[in-house]
Design goal:
Layout (H helix, E strand, L loop, with lengths): L1 H26 L3 H19 L12 H10 L2 H10 L6 H21 L1 H4 L4 H25 L1
Helix pairs in contact: 1-3, 1-4, 1-5, 2-4, 2-7
Length: 145
Amino acid sequence: MAIIFAFFQTIMPALGYMLGYGLRIYISHIDHWIAFALLLGIGIKFIQEANAPNKNIHTKNWKVLCLLGIATSIDALVVGTTFSFVDISILLAITIIGITTFIISFLGYEFGGHLCNFNSKKIKILSGIILIVIGTKILLTHLFF
């Protein structure tokens, strides 16, 4: 499970980066607005998901795991497009994303029963706020600095 999730979380930002980089010459004058809008949208989505009920998933089916891997990495595709608008090493970024996803997925699966004691709602809200702040920083940096 951890390998599947890490694979899709690594590939999707790379694909998003290539897509965004290909469009860069056409949208470079509004890239900061696009990055802001995408990160704002993802941040709001995280905050909204904090209130959604958790769903139990059967993790023995490879097709289900692959679909989950794709579904949970769609936002990584969007984030990858924003990487093409900022000065970032895409190889370093996707390496960190892949390793982090693998470790967290592995630990989450292995210790899932123990992890449910943490307040994931607050973590999701904090994650959403952080993404919104990053998007706002990108926008303000391009507009005023």
